[in-house]
Write a structure and sequence with these properties.
It is a single chain. Helix content is about 20%, strand content about 25%. The chain has about 450 residues and is an alpha+beta fold. It has 2 domains: about 80 residues, Immunoglobulins (Immunoglobulin-like), CATH 2.60.40.10; about 325 residues, Alkaline phosphatase D (PhoD) (Purple Acid Phosphatase, chain A, domain 2, 4-Layer Sandwich), CATH 3.60.21. The strands form 4 sheets. Strands 11-10-9-18-19-20 form a 6-stranded mixed beta sheet, with helices on one face. Helix 4 packs parallel to helix 6. The radius of gyration is 24 Å and the shape is globular. The N and C termini lie far apart (about 90 Å).
């Protein structure tokens, strides 16, 4: 009896010690599976996005490392399976032009890693702030379970390069993803659960983790993060796709109550960004009717009114498909002639200054220039790819007459828009850079050159 009791005690203690060890291991591994990712940052607000893999409780502890101001802790958020175990923290009442530090509190435990962000500055006596916008599209990440040995992606170090370069900036910066930010495989878009799984795999990929907290992120989509290749408004899981986009990209907004989609708008100093949805309302590219639409009547009406309300020097219009390329056999607004003609005519009639178009999709980078008699030329920067396989342009586009000389890049790259200076001398520098941060090319434009001669700038 005594021996049996002694053996039972030994077994119980061993089990108890093993149980404690397992709990300690689980506690040690309790941390984000993806992120944190920094979302929009304004003068007084910031958004932090985090994803886990269990129904844990997550909070943030925030302070100002450069000031002796008491820190604070947010209310804990319970991660839920139906929300993808995602937590979004919308921080408010922040001070302009201030550097903040935040750390993650996971199930009550303060994690070691600290992350930082700086709020936008208010206009001051020293003039307007310097701004850098990082751009990229077509970010394919290899998945051996679906891709096999096919090499559709590579060069992931470009993502770390953007993170390092952004971290070294002393001024305000942000990243704008120009579509095909993930690649849904055919097995994925058979059902929303497959699409959700792809989003989770991409966001938790090791190659993404340095970039996510490095700077504020904004995004649009194109066909591969919407659904099937080159697809249109008929995609049966489009609502599920939009819901996932909203879950994973904490843009300032996504559509309007009476206008579904993910179009939105935001501002940084004297730059206004208009992010368009080129999928939700899109008619088939093969439709032969004259009135087919890529963006749709309502979205175009919204864009025109938003541009009329803008007082920014630079008005950046971003979409997943090219806007101004007339020679491409691939997707682009030139296949929707009436919709494009109507908008460009309206732009001319209403003398909208400072417009620059951004696009991705094409697996090469170029700067196109459309001359307009009696008005400033329209420019479109197409920036692609980040990690997907680059493509060479076809013969019909090899010597494109609208391409700014020397701006064709048929290699993995990212782009930047850098704005600095004041008044009409404020300079916009457009660059394409390789995975080491070396420039392929740079084109500079003065703000005064992006409006009709003799036309006053429409500023506050």
């Amino acid at each position: 009896m005594g021996l049996s009791h002694h053996l039972f005690e030994n077994l119980f203690m061993r089990f108890f010690i093993l149980f404690i060890a397992v709990l300690s291991s689980l506690a040690a591994n309790a941390r984000p599976s993806a992120g944190p990712m920094l979302g929009p940052v304004t003068r007084h607000t910031a958004t932090v996005w985090i994803q886990g893999s269990e129904p844990d409780r997550v909070a943030l502890e925030i302070d100002q490392p450069d000031n002796k101001v008491p820190g604070w802790r947010t209310q804990a958020v319970q991660l839920k399976a139906e929300a993808g175990y995602i937590a979004r923290f919308d921080l408010d009442s922040l001070a302009p032009g201030t550097r903040y530090r935040y750390r993650i509190v996971w199930n009550g435990k303060l994690l070691d890693s600290a992350h930082h962000f700086k709020t936008q500055s208010s206009p001051g006596p020293d003039g307007l702030p310097e701004i850098t916008v990082y751009l990229g599209s077509c970010a394919h990440l290899h998945d051996p379970s679906t891709d096999g040995a096919r090499e559709w992606s590579g060069g992931y170090e470009i993502l770390d390069q953007i993170a390092a370069r952004a971290g070294a900036d002393s001024h305000h910066n942000l990243m704008l993803w120009l579509g095909d930010n993930i690649y849904l495989r055919p097995d994925d878009y058979e059902h929303p659960s497959g699409m959700a799984s792809r989003y989770r795999k991409v966001r938790s990929h090791a190659a993404m983790q340095k970039l996510l907290p490095a700077l504020p992120h904004y995004a649009i989509w194109d066909d591969h993060d919407y659904g099937p290749n080159n697809h249109n408004q008929s995609f049966v899981f489009k609502q599920a796709s939009l819901d996932l986009f909203r879950q994973y990209w904490p843009n300032p907004s996504a559509g309007l109550p009476d206008m579904p989609g993910n179009h939105t708008q935001f501002s940084v100093a004297d730059m206004d960004f208009f992010l368009l949805d080129n999928r939700w309302n899109r008619d088939s590219d093969h439709d032969q009717s004259d009135n087919r639409k890529m963006f749709g009547v309502d979205q175009m009406h919204w864009l025109k009114n938003a541009l009329m309300a803008s007082r920014a020097r630079f008005k950046i219009i971003a979409g997943g498909s090219q806007f101004l390329n007339d020679l491409s056999r691939h997707e682009g607004w030139h296949h929707f002639r009436e919709e494009r003609r109507d908008f460009l005519s309206w732009l001319e009639l209403n003398n909208i200054s400072g417009v620059l178009f951004l696009s991705g999709d094409r697996h090469h980078t170029e700067l196109l220039k459309q001359e307009r008699p009696g008005n400033y030329p329209l420019f479109e920067l197409t920036c692609s790819p980040l990690t997907s396989r680059p493509h060479s342009v076809e013969t019909t586009e090899a010597n494109h007459p609208a391409r700014v000389e020397g701006t064709l890049v048929e290699a993995r790259n990212y782009c930047t828009l850098n704005v600095q200076g004041n008044g009409d001398d404020r300079m916009l520098a457009v660059r394409s850079l390789d995975a080491r941060g070396n420039p392929f090319w740079e084109v500079r434009m003065e703000a005064g050159a992006l409006r009709r001669t003799g036309s006053p700038a429409r500023l506050p």
